[in-house]
Amino acid sequence: MEQKDLIESIEKNFKYKKEIKVIDGKQFIVTVEKDKVLNILSFLKLIDFKQLALITAVDWIDEKKFEIVYVLFSYSHIQQVLVKTFVERDNPQVETVKNLWDVASMYERDVHEFFGIDFVGNDDLRPLILHNWKDLPPLRKDFDSLKYSNKMFGKFKKDEEL
Amino acid sequence: MTEILTFLGKEDQYEKYELFFGPNHPGMHGNFSYILTVEGHTIKKVDPDPGLLHRGFEKLAERRKWMQNIALIPRICVPEPDINEVIYSIAVEKLMGIEVPIRAQYIRTIILEMARLGAFLFGFGGIGGATGLYTASYWTNADRDYLLDLFEWLSGARVYHMFIVPGGVRRDLPSGWIEKLSETVDYLQKRLYEYDRLIYNNPLIVKRLKGIGKLTKEEAIEYGITGPNLRATGVKYDTRKMVPYAAYNKIDFEIPIQSEGDGLARAIQRREEFQLSLDIIRKAIKDLPDGPVRLKMPNPLKFNVPKGEVYVKIESARGEHAYYIVSNGKDKPYRMAVRGGSYTAGLVLAQKILVGMRIEDVALWMATMDICPPDFDR
């Protein structure tokens, strides 16, 4: 299917509130409410968006929101779709999609570690990459890497102080 | 951490034990570890343990200006660094809505294919190393050096070139470089037949690779396997052909595929793609147009990229390497997420497919899948 038909099909079959934006001929964005993520993803998987390429997040600290992005690709339509949703920064929770794709579990573990977002239903959110991390999740915008470095490894001394 | 090695103490278990496969294991590719639960020789459970190589690129990139990041991002992927520069540049160009000169597109294509050849040579050597055929890794590493010499001539650096920038490439090709490249391509073509005799027609390797980690089409797509590993299962998809970037839409080529989806098919697929890369370089040299190689861009330390987001992927030697870049209109990227080509294969598929294999198959499976730890620890 062409991009136009795909968007039409989503418009027609996915009844909940959504916003569709085209990036270019091979890529478009669908933004949905956070409790409808599972619906839209399972619908997209049904219309042959079989590959889950990435789950990631963006910290919009000024709007007090996290944006979660699911990147899907279809080998038959040759289209990339970015499914986005927003969660509250104070209580970042979203339903897991690990039942749709096995790989989702690892991406969610990654995002949980780096943003502190909870994926409800995913029971394997153990630390993955950071060892013995006790600070704020590091990819949040309010995490200050210089302050952390000074705290952990001592302040950087200028040449004359040494 | 104290609980890990306590099977013996806790359960009075003598057959089952835990084996730390890496980071100091000779069969491990880089700084990464699988914690294997093993009974006798057979693997029962796999727990990947990345993080030993984590350098926080995604965070670092947020603190640097758009142009400064060019010096940082090639370091994400060690065997094939140029893909990062290209993705990043394409992303910035897409967000800014600029079109790169055609000669620069061709030069990018040549550089990408050279990097691909280098990565494949590393991969061939890996298969040799994991089967005890060390000659293969000596030969391939020595041949890779000829490519690095060319990169050194071109950019001054052997591994991290920082040659591709938003708006084109840093400078035009030096005189005589193309001729030298043609010579190297011819040399590698000759060597490929030697590799056939040494590796691909070697009964020992063929027998050893056959049936290792067999995947079907559906499984491969489900697990996000991309690139040569996906094509080895029979899916005829190549980002270079289907969603072209650089000058790939102007170069005509056929996508090779295999059908078995096992270790041997993956190895042969890589051999075929090595041939394909040589062909693409030849065609690109033949068609290389004249013209400017770099657009006039704003002051590198003062340019802002318009608001927006884009997901850019390209075909690396390990599969789909991609960036998701968000700009909020300022002088630094707001967010840069990296998708490594072997992320899902090494972290998720490994947990499923290695179960039931023997310990000595792990290194070989990793070599045929081209698992690269920098993909996990961006």
Automatic annotation (TrEMBL), chain A:
GO terms for molecular function: NADH dehydrogenase (ubiquinone) activity. Residues 30-147 form the NADH:ubiquinone oxidoreductase 30kDa subunit domain. Keywords: Ubiquinone. The keyword rRNA processing does not apply. InterPro entries: NADH_quin_OxRdtase_su_C/D-like, NADH_UbQ_OxRdtase_30kDa_su. Belongs to the complex I 30 kDa subunit family. This is NADH dehydrogenase (Ubiquinone), 30 kDa subunit.
TrEMBL record, chain B:
Residues 132-297, 302-378 form the NADH-quinone oxidoreductase subunit D domain. It comes from candidate division TA06 bacterium 34_109. PANTHER family: NADH DEHYDROGENASE [UBIQUINONE] IRON-SULFUR PROTEIN 2, MITOCHONDRIAL (PTHR11993:SF10), NADH-UBIQUINONE OXIDOREDUCTASE 49 KDA SUBUNIT (PTHR11993). This is NADH-ubiquinone oxidoreductase chain D. Gene3D superfamilies: Cytochrome-c3 Hydrogenase, chain B. Keywords: NAD, Translocase, Transport, Ubiquinone. SUPFAM superfamilies: HydB/Nqo4-like. One of its GO terms (molecular function) is NAD binding. Coiled coil: none annotated. The keyword Translocase applies. Pfam families: Complex1_49kDa. Belongs to the complex I 49 kDa subunit family. It comes from the Bacteria. InterPro entries: NADH_Q_OxRdtase_suD (IPR001135), NADH_UbQ_OxRdtase_49kDa_CS (IPR014029), NDH1_su_D/H (IPR022885), NiFe-Hase_large (IPR029014). The keyword Translocase applies.
